[in-house]
Specification:
With 433 residues, this protein is of the alpha/beta class. The chain has three domains: 47 residues, Transferase, Pyrimidine Nucleoside Phosphorylase, Chain C (Transferase, Pyrimidine Nucleoside Phosphorylase, Chain A, domain 3, Up-down Bundle); 246 residues, Nucleoside phosphorylase/phosphoribosyltransferase catalytic domain (Pyrimidine Nucleoside Phosphorylase, Chain A, domain 2); 88 residues, Alpha-Beta Complex (Aldehyde Oxidoreductase, domain 3), CATH 3.90.1170. It contains 17 helices and 13 strands. Helix 1 packs parallel to helix 3, helix 4 packs across helix 9 and helix 5 runs parallel beside helix 11. The model has no long low-confidence stretch (mean pLDDT 94).
């Protein structure tokens, strides 16, 4: 078997079989297939796509290229969730304790963030002492004891995917739906989950800006799940403006705790309950989504989920007193306001621009070696549809950097104020299952 023949086959629209895909991924992983040939294959896939069988085979070969986490010692059906990412996305911090509060184990591995703000792991390190590096025994015991743990990615998970993504990043083949879908699903499958709920974002702050692209990606990932024996549900949710009112690491932890304490932040609450509801059905705790949603909403209101979150922080060495005294979270030295220049309605917020502003304040990383400022972030005072007068405070920016000029300029680009009130977008666009 020769790689050049397989590139030619794919270039001409042919379908690669499992044996051929195994040859490609094994050769690429052990470096007998050079980067330039893998780049050529990626471009052929970009233009010609892949069938469901091809994408499923590619996913599983990437899973097999490294470690596969064994969660068999954790009692119960393990349900994982994954978000395609966005601005102000602190959904995992709400969903994990909510699902754990009904006894479904949440054994989650998360990454660090590159871009707007930190990832879930970075956000949790806003708690002094929080440990994201548990041993396998500690991880298993904690999930069995309190039904929840979130740690950094361990072991050598999907090395083929890491190498392939690095190539795609420099060969203009990142936005290939089969390659995106197999990349995401390979990591989730290697992490050991029995079932998976995917939060696929669409809008200005999402990787998939259009609904059609988000739907195509969601359908591809659900098809992979079906083909490899993992129950998978994809929920397409709105990211046309930041989620909630807080962007930043400690900021987002604070808002997640407030929602778990019963605060009605509509978009966060609705999306979190939707994701958690589907997880609860896949975990076989409720027969229907509607029953799951209603009961989980009660658990959010009565403090059950907040108590699990408190136990989780303490179990991983964090200072759980911050859960009850949010003023003890990291605080920035400097604060400035962004104000409306005219009266009208907030017509739109380009979520990506707000995310970049947060990064410039220190909340995110421009490169993987950048240090995060956990206290840096943005509090939105006005969101899409809100009426404003000239001079009204639209957002509050906080940082340990005194000069926030560049972040304010980004906020100016982000907000559009017009004369008419815009129509509200749905928070949940579709469910693919």
């Amino acid at each position: 078997m020769r790689m050049v023949d397989l590139i030619l086959k794919k270039r001409n629209g042919g379908e690669l079989n499992e044996e051929e895909i195994r040859f490609i991924i094994e050769g690429f992983t052990n470096e007998t297939i050079p980067d330039y040939q893998m780049s050529a294959l990626s471009m052929a896939i970009y233009f010609n796509g892949m069938t469901e069988k091809e994408t499923a085979a590619l996913t599983m070969e990437m899973v097999k290229s490294g470690d596969v986490i064994d969660l068999s010692n954790i009692q119960g059906k393990k349900v994982d969730k994954h978000s395609t990412g966005g601005v102000g996305d602190k959904i995992s911090l709400i969903v994990a304790p909510l699902v754990a509060s009904i006894g479904i184990p949440v054994a989650k591995m998360s990454g660090r963030g590159l871009g707007h703000t930190g990832g879930t792991i970075d956000k949790l390190e806003s708690f002094p002492g929080f440990n994201v590096e548990l041993t396998e025994e500690q991880f298993t015991k904690q999930v069995n004891d309190i039904k929840m743990s979130i740690i950094g990615q361990t072991g050598n998970l999907t090395p083929a995917d890491k190498r392939l993504y690095a190539l795609r990043d420099v060969t203009a083949t990142v936005d290939s739906i089969p390659l995106i879908a197999s990349s995401i699903m390979s990591k989730k499958i290697a992490a050991g989950a029995d079932s998976i709920v995917l939060d696929v974002k669409t809008g200005s702050g999402a990787f998939m800006k259009s609904f059609d692209d988000a739907k195509a990606l969601a359908e591809e990932m659900v098809a992979i799940g079906k083909n490899v024996g993992r129950q998978t549900v994809a929920v397409i949710t709105d990211m046309d403006q930041p989620l909630g009112f807080e962007i930043g690491n400690a900021n987002e932890v604070k808002e997640a705790i407030e929602v778990l304490s019963g605060k009605d932040v509509n978009d966060l609450k609705t999306i979190a309950l939707t994701i958690a509801g589907h997880m609860a059905v896949l975990g076989e705790f409720y027969p229907t989504f509607d029953e799951a949603y209603a009961d989980l909403e009660k658990r959010m209101a009565d403090g059950h989920a907040l108590e699990v979150f408190r136990q989780f922080v303490a179990a991983q060495g964090g200072d759980a007193s911050l859960v009850d005294d949010l003023s003890k979270l990291p605080q920035a030295k400097y604060e400035t306001t962004f104000v409306a220049k005219q009266a009208g309605y907030v017509e739109s917020i380009i979520a990506d621009e707000v995310g970049v502003a947060a990064m410039l304040l220190g909340a995110g990383r421009a490169t993987k070696d950048d240090q995060l400022d956990f206290a840096a972030g943005i509090t939105l005072e006005k969101k899409v549809g809100d009426k404003v007068e000239a001079g009204d405070v639209i957002a509050v920016l906080r940082s340990n950097k005194e000069d926030m000029t560049s972040a304010l300029e980004r906020m100016d680009h982000a907000y559009t104020i017009g004369a008419t009130e815009p129509e509200a977008r749905p928070l949940v666009h579709a469910v693919i299952q």
